[in-house]
Write a structure and sequence with these properties.
Length: 154
């Protein structure tokens, strides 16, 4: 398991994160990388998101959310598998974000994730805020400080 509390503090203060060297993420094993993008953090998740891997990834995602100013943008294009337990991790992340006045937006996904979200009617929960709801849309800002985290759930 990864203790990202120091990394989350570093994201908020702009200090370099300790132990954040780039490491390859093994295929099939859960892992994530993140980059600070203005007031949001873009998170790329790879591997499988299920009951076994979900708890480790949940802790990492919670720490990254805590380090963001306005929320998290998810790139799930590298997920090979996602089940209902994995979806619960994403829904819990969204709930925590809303409690903090932040958002979670899925920016990329796979057909597996799209089908799961569609079958459950949850795709709209992770959509970007629309301008007609009183939220100003911002263009994505350049990302800095990319970090790759070791696989979770090991």
């Amino acid at each position: 398991m990864h203790d990202l509390s120091e990394q989350a503090r570093s994201l908020r203060t702009g200090l370099p994160c300790q132990g954040s060297g780039k490491k390859p993420l093994p295929a099939g094993r859960p892992g994530m990388a993140y980059a600070v993008c203005g007031d949001r953090i873009r998170v790329t998740v790879r591997g499988e998101l299920d009951l076994d891997s979900g708890e480790g990834l949940r802790e990492d995602l919670d720490a990254v959310l805590a380090g963001s100013t306005s929320g998290v943008d998810l790139d799930l294009g590298g997920l090979d598998f996602c089940d209902c337990a994995g979806l619960n991790v994403l829904l819990d992340l969204r709930r925590c974000a809303l409690e903090q006045g932040k958002t979670v937006v899925i920016r990329a996904s796979t057909p597996v994730v799209d089908r799961l979200l569609t079958l459950l009617g949850a795709q709209g929960l992770f959509a970007p805020p629309s301008p007609h709801r009183g939220v100003a849309m911002r263009l994505p800002s350049p990302c800095t400080g990319s970090r790759v985290l070791a696989p979770t759930g090991t």
